[in-house]
Amino acid sequence: MKQLFIVGIGPGGPEGLTGEARRALDAAEVLCGYTVYLDLLAPLYPGKETYSTPMTRELERCRWALETASAGRTVAMVCSGDAGVYGMAGPLLQMAEEYPEVETAVIPGVTAALSGAAVLGAPLMNDFCVISLSDLLTPWEAIEKRLRCAAEGDFSICIYNPGSKKRAGHLKRACEILLETKSPETVCGWVRNIGREGQESKLLTLAELSGETSDMFTTVFVGASATQKIAGRMVTPRGYEKKNAEKEDG
Amino acid sequence: MKQLFIVGIGPGGPEGLTGEARRALDAAEVLCGYTVYLDLLAPLYPGKETYSTPMTRELERCRWALETASAGRTVAMVCSGDAGVYGMAGPLLQMAEEYPEVETAVIPGVTAALSGAAVLGAPLMNDFCVISLSDLLTPWEAIEKRLRCAAEGDFSICIYNPGSKKRAGHLKRACEILLETKSPETVCGWVRNIGREGQESKLLTLAELSGETSDMFTTVFVGASATQKIAGRMVTPRGYEKKNAEKEDG
Sign (positive/negative) of CA torsion B62, B67, B68, B70? Predict the structure, then answer.
């Protein structure tokens, strides 16, 4: 069988892998991915063959993975978080159309929206949006429009790729857009290096968030209007209290 | 130490658990949750003490968990998918303010948006929204508004709780709202019983989705305008092809 697994490895170390992901990595003869993620797995698979390309050469990596699987070797393409959220599942499945002989399987993982939320408390307990501020692949106008729609709908918002050296100012601009609709007191938070060495996090207001610097290892959370700071945690109520109060009233 | 873990167990069986979740469940003296989820874990923990309440008595379950942890027993509150997405992390952390002696930790898991997406392909590869159609805890008007905003922003949309016996017609109404903005040909899909016995899935158009019946074990995916059906899978392109074409052009 010609098999290619596209595996989300979760936030960081081996503890974040699901059993299913672990089984796919065990089965793979070669692990393929961005160097940082392969390094996170190295302690689990010392000596296993790996193949990596720099961050910006994703399609080359997909091609290599499909060619290698087609040649009969079992390959796991490794993605941080979930393979289907800003990961390699999309481009790989698009390209896989040219390799009908290769069986592909996407193995889901814990994306940063979930692992970061768990660090902060429960900011995504009700309806939420996930938006990337990277305009490498999406026009900036489309990102601005989505930020406006997310604010208008009063979603909790999780922001990926809030900044990098090349994109300084994106988070500040995003906050300005959100502040057109949302209160400057909106509860926000960020987490950096989730589940890895040097993990940090902070709760702050939307007004304060605007002045923060961020990098590609930071995930940002902007609360809905109902989101609260409770005992140092960011929590979006789901509405159970209200329901119970109504029950008691009625 | 008085310890309470709030654990997302992923879509179904033991294979969906992360190592971290597994460790928390191992450490717990008592597992607490909705019966269906405790049953999924039973093969892993035969004989371990459990406590459950019916689905609608969530706050009672949270209170019991906190009281039990406060009395010195290590408790794991078990949620399907991720504890922080329509799960118990929110109400538990709200109530935990009354129990400062209890140390609480949220352990993230693979929510149905991710596990369902992996079954269908890669529908959430770009910015996306997660919306529940249950109006038990959220007014229906707020849900309608979020659907409109999600369509307006051209997000991929993942819909939780699309229907139940009491909420027949919610999915049809949601599709009507989305069709105000989106093409009837928009690529959509649903997955039922993700990662469990009897898993089913289907790709269809938004026009067709409107006539489907669904239940509380179904997760629905509505594509963005760019979402495609590729070799029987639902894929939202991230834009690598476009970028590479521009590179070659420029």
Answer: positive
For residues B145 and A153, the answer to whether their CB atoms sit within 8 Å is yes
> Residues 57..76 of A with a Cβ closer than 8 Å to B: which?
58-59
Interface of A with B in 85-104 (CB under 8 A): 85-87, 89-91, 93-94, 96-97, 100
Tokens encoding B220: 């629905």
Low-confidence winner among A40-54, A81-95, B213-227 (lowest mean pLDDT): A40-54
> Which residue from B194, B205, B28 is spatially nearest to B109, judged by alpha carbons?
B194
B150 in A contact zone (CB under 8 Å): yes
Nearest CA-CA partner of A183 in A155, A151, A213, A153: A151
This prediction's pTM: 0.95
Cβ partners under 8 Å of residue A185, min gap 6: A205, A206, A207
Q: What ipTM does this complex have? A: 0.95
Structure-block tokens of residue A20: 């299913």
Please provide residue B33's backbone torsions phi and psi, each rounded to the nearest 5 degrees: 170, -175
Chain B residue with minimum CA distance to A242: B137
Beta-bridge mates of residue B191: B201, B219
Of A117, A129, A130, A123, the closest CA to residue A228 belongs to A123
Say how far apart CA B122 and CA A85 lie, in whole Å.
Answer: 8
Q: What six digits make up the tokens of B3?
A: 């310890």
Alpha helix segments (H runs only) across chain B? 19-27, 35-41, 58-70, 89-96, 112-120, 140-152, 170-179, 206-209, 240-249
- Give the SS3 label for residue B6: strand
pLDDT of A171-229, one tens digit each? 999 999 999 999 999 999 999 999 988 999 999 999 999 999 888 899 999 999 999 99
Helix (H, G, I), strand (E, B) or coil at A179: helix
The torsion defined by the Cα of B201, B204, B208 and B209, in degrees rounded to 10, comes to 50
